[in-house]
Design brief:
Blueprint (H helix, E strand, L loop, with lengths): L11 H8 L3 H10 L8 H22 L2 H33 L7 E4 L10 E4 L2 E4 L9 E7 L14 E11 L19 E4 L6 E2 L3 E5 L22 H12 L3 E6 L8 H11 L5 E3 L11 E8 L9 H8 L3 E6 L13 E2 L6 H13 L1 H4 L9 E5 L5 H10 L12 H13 L15 H6 L11
Helix pairs in contact: 6-8, 10-11
Length: 448
């Protein structure tokens, strides 16, 4: 091969030699570098053209009869399923209208219009607000004292011979209308938070862990809040307490003459600490970031516990009761803070801040978790249903033929219910007029 002259290009063999690499070195470089898809300008044009052809093919397919036929088939299937879900319940209701009902029927006299949750089942009884429910006679008619009511039309309602006219109420009875002028058909059963009611009922109640029976007496707090708690319970409680970083919250309420004392107390507290107000504790956070919940209760009715008190305990907050009545034997002692134990709102605020800074003291308010369980009443008419079921058994005599002492035993046994169903305390039956007039809510306008 001739030699290259000076100033000319290198020989071909030297060029090949300088560009040659070992196979192993090339493999290492390919392994170190991520694989990338590199398209030449021609490849990019081909890929764009392929995508354009695919879109055009899809558009042409949408215009074909086969496409519309498949779409109609899918729509017909969806419509058929929806019709089945709508027609089957109506068919069952129509069939049920011609069959005798073997369940006791409870009429809710003033629970809203008939089309609003008109019928449902509770513990084997039919509960309805429809005053003409398939012509079936009603075994019990319930008046909700928490809402306005009138007995007008009661005489035209079809009912059994031994039916019950129930006076029920969960709000303080001092805030309800006086039922005495409406006693054309006297109430023969009471169902409320009062402990002397025939059926004691509230939205929440306390029980032991291994029993659903309502408690009206509690032990004193233990020295250590975790004494008697299981390990999972302690871990769960600590997880809830870790979420807290704010002092206190309270629920918005109507400021009027009745709540004026609580409003003045709130203004005094705001001079020493910032407080937050919510409409409810529903939602993602659930008020879990607060140490305390302020409970403003303008009434002092015996046996009444504000629903927010239970909600605070359910959300792992310590209730701070401002107002209200005597809660002895209604809630566990040492589970809440009472404003009456402090000389001023300033001292109460200082106490709350001190508890927030000392977790070991704050945790003591949760001692009751080791012994008791807070339960909610999802079906408020279960106790009434058990009473009706017990009365309709063949061996049970007509209540008008049974002495008062035996009536009390029958009501107590019925309220005890079946196994696994919460039991409800039953008091000795008192005529309604006496029951209403013997109860007094103290005037507490200057309670602070």
């Amino acid at each position: 091969m001739p030699l290259a002259k000076k100033g000319c290009t290198k020989p071909l063999d030297k060029i090949l030699l300088s560009q040659r690499r070992s196979l192993q070195q090339m493999q290492r470089e390919m392994a170190e570098q991520p694989q990338q898809r590199v398209l030449s300008p021609r490849g990019k044009r081909q890929e764009a053209a392929y995508r354009q052809d695919a879109r055009q093919h899809l558009q042409r397919h949408k215009r074909t009869p086969e496409y519309y036929m498949n779409l109609l088939k899918m729509l017909s299937i969806v419509v058929t399923i929806c019709l089945l879900f709508a027609i089957v319940p109506l068919y069952r209701n129509c069939q049920g209208g011609h069959k005798p009902l073997n369940h006791s029927v409870i009429l809710l006299w003033n629970e809203g219009p008939a089309w609003e949750r008109s019928v449902h089942m509770e513990c084997g009884c039919v509960v309805t607000s429809d005053r003409d429910f398939h012509g079936k006679p009603f075994d019990a008619i319930v008046f909700n004292a928490d809402q306005p009511y009138s007995p007008h039309g009661l005489e035209s309602v079809h009912h059994t011979a031994d039916h019950l006219v129930v006076f029920s109420g969960s709000a303080p009875l001092s805030q309800t209308q006086n039922p005495i002028p409406f006693l054309k058909a006297p109430f023969n059963l009471t169902m409320s938070y009062r402990l002397d009611s025939d059926l004691v009922w509230s939205e929440y109640y306390f029980s032991l862990h291994n029993s659903s029976k309502r408690l009206n007496a509690f032990e004193q707090p233990t020295e250590s809040f975790s004494e008697g708690m299981s390990t999972p319970m302690i871990v769960g409680l600590h997880e809830h307490l870790k979420l807290k970083d704010r002092l206190a919250v309270y629920m918005m309420y109507v400021v009027n003459e009745q709540t004026m004392a609580e409003s003045y107390y709130l203004l005094e507290m705001r001079k020493h600490v910032e407080l937050e107000a919510h409409e409810s504790c529903l939602g993602y956070h659930g008020c879990s970031a607060y140490y305390f919940m302020l409970i403003f209760e303008p009434s002092a009715c015996p046996d009444f516990v504000h629903p927010q008190f239970y909600q605070a305990l359910d959300k792992f907050m310590v209730p701070v009761l401002i107002g209200g009545g005597n809660l002895t034997n209604l809630v566990p002692p040492g589970s809440y803070i009472n404003s009456r134990d402090f000389a001023s709102a300033k001292q109460l605020v200082e106490h709350l801040k001190a508890l927030m800074a000392q977790p070991e003291l704050y945790q003591r308010y949760f001692w009751w978790h080791s012994k008791y369980k807070l339960r909610s009443t999802f079906e408020p008419y279960c106790s009434l249903c058990h009473l009706l079921t017990q009365r309709h058994q063949p061996q049970t005599l007509n209540p008008q033929e049974v002495p008062r002492e035996e009536q009390h035993q029958t009501i107590a046994a019925a309220a005890e219910g079946a196994q696994g169903v919460p039991s409800f305390p039953v008091a000795v039956h008192i005529p309604f007029v006496d029951w209403w007039q013997r109860y007094h809510c103290p005037n507490r306008t200057n309670r602070f």
